[in-house]
């Protein structure tokens, strides 16, 4: 039954367009255009363009980026005008200027010396952010270069592994504390103490990544084309590791800032006249109950700095991974 | 063709390649002898794990050899050679890789990938000259010059493999090792790539060492074929000679397994199963012997006599 109806349909088609009416003019010769087949219609891909597109896609990222920009601008511009000095005790006898709660006049309030907390926080943030940025830049640059060479060369690998085993078994905080004690207080001394051994962790991490990439076939192909090792590192391996490196930076930036805060809290690290968020937090911690704003506002700013840096770093790391570009 | 009059480009003598050492030592390739003549397409056919790719890679110097010689243009190129010499040889021997998506640098433009070798050997005087060379090469492999600044992942598999071919051939190599260049490709574009390789052989006189496992492909493209099994070359002959008069039982079994697109013939055909234990090499040691002119078989003395008897013309 089914077949019969199907067949009758086929005959119907024949009746709609009778074969007698189909002439040769109804047909045209279609040629195969091989050039046309090779064309790619998708818009041109650019790596950094796709990274930017992916990065700015999320509203949270844009908000965090703005927040970070505001904090950075405040930290680097406001202290130029406020002329804040940590050791200034000019207002100490002016009882009206002491222990003011946050108000229109004193946005973040004042402390026992009559100094504005608003000025103190931005001056402190400037030091803390500078330490974090400089220390992680030094760590990453040394770490990535050493790690790349470490991962490529089997001879260096043997030597470096021994050095790594020795250094990595000592807690890094202990090394930093001992070094900053022995070199004395100071901004650059603290940075030296922080970066002295931290790069080896990054280098080890990079070594593993480079070793994974090293034996990939496109590197073998480059070698058969006579490409020198240096170019293989810079053109073949490191571009693949951009997102890995960005992730590492995004983790190390906040961690260096918290190292500084912790060390200043303990009283080692920076000189006595340098304001920093860590020093503010340790200085005001006795007021946690009596004048809580003195303690909590620096903590809040610190939290905002580290969280925004961390989230931006993570988003940038995600965006720089080309697997997310599709 | 008379092989005696042809110029030998690459000659492999008693090659042995081992991986690992001590207890975990594994002999991947043993007693391999063959010559490749200038301008021909020489194919190595074998099952997976037979060592065909290993030989190809040893020619390029990627895999170290443990015994024997690889002689290229009259000079030994395996073992210890100066890095300067190695650098010069690297330009003359190029490779086309099996997997086009793994062998191209995904973070570089086609322009950089193709001119990578040109940069290394400074094969251009001006930037314009380099760009012209790359454009010409792109057109020669059937791609469009406007695709110069695109990235490999934007191309189809066949196009990517053609980028790989362009990158190897822009160096003007004398010998190209093509390591299963079509096995990762779709059926419909295999012919495209094969014809391209043939075109370069014809027009530029490039010699190919073609590694493959597909006999019908090999028959189409190659001038001479070597059949390899478990690291040993069992039979070597000119293409049509090998397909007409297979001598070694392993070759016979391979040829009997080629699919025939005709069910009636396919059904009546007898498949030959090769048993490696059928050879008794305990008394007579096997050797690579010439049974007919240009037709070599790995066999013992008594087998050689038997093979010679059974040859049909």
From TrEMBL, chain A:
- Which parts of the sequence belong to the ABC transmembrane type-1 domain? 125-313
InterPro entries named in the record: BP-dependent_transpt_permease (IPR050366), MetI-like (IPR000515), MetI-like_sf (IPR035906), OppC_permease (IPR054864)
**Family in the record:** Belongs to the binding-protein-dependent transport system permease family. OppBC subfamily.
An example GO biological process term is:
peptide transport
Transmembrane stretches, start-end: 60-81, 129-151, 163-181, 187-206, 237-257, 293-313
Q: Which residues form a coiled coil?
A: none
What PANTHER family does the record point to? OLIGOPEPTIDE TRANSPORT SYSTEM PERMEASE PROTEIN AMID (PTHR43386:SF24), OLIGOPEPTIDE TRANSPORT SYSTEM PERMEASE PROTEIN APPC (PTHR43386)
One GO cellular component term noted in the UniProt record for this chain:
plasma membrane
- How does it sit in the bilayer? Multi-pass membrane protein
The cellular location(s) given in this protein's UniProt record come to: Cell membrane
Name-wise, this protein is: Peptide ABC transporter permease
Alphabetical keyword list: Cell membrane, Membrane, Peptide transport, Protein transport, Transmembrane, Transmembrane helix, Transport
The record's section on NCBIfam families has:
MMSYN1_0166 (NF043080)
Species of origin: Liquorilactobacillus cacaonum DSM 21116
TrEMBL record, chain B:
Residue ranges annotated for the ABC transporter domain, each copy included: 12-255
Tell me where it mainly resides. membrane
- A Gene Ontology biological process term: protein transport
| Gene Ontology molecular function terms on file | ATP binding; ATP hydrolysis activity
Q: Which cellular components does GO assign to this protein?
A: plasma membrane
Tell me which PROSITE patterns the record gives.
Answer: ABC_TRANSPORTER_1, ABC_TRANSPORTER_2
Please name the SUPFAM superfamilies in this protein's record. P-loop containing nucleoside triphosphate hydrolases (SSF52540)
Record localization: Cell membrane
Q: Coiled coil: which residue ranges?
A: none
Question: Source organism's superkingdom?
Answer: Bacteria
Q: How does it sit in the membrane?
A: Peripheral membrane protein
The alphabetized UniProt keywords are: ATP-binding, Nucleotide-binding, Peptide transport, Protein transport, Transport
User: What's the family?
Assistant: Belongs to the ABC transporter superfamily.
Record-linked PANTHER family: D,D-DIPEPTIDE TRANSPORT ATP-BINDING PROTEIN DDPF-RELATED (PTHR43776:SF7), TRANSPORT ATP-BINDING PROTEIN (PTHR43776)
Protein name (Swiss-Prot/TrEMBL): Oligopeptide transport ATP-binding protein amiF
Q: From what organism does this protein derive?
A: Liquorilactobacillus cacaonum DSM 21116
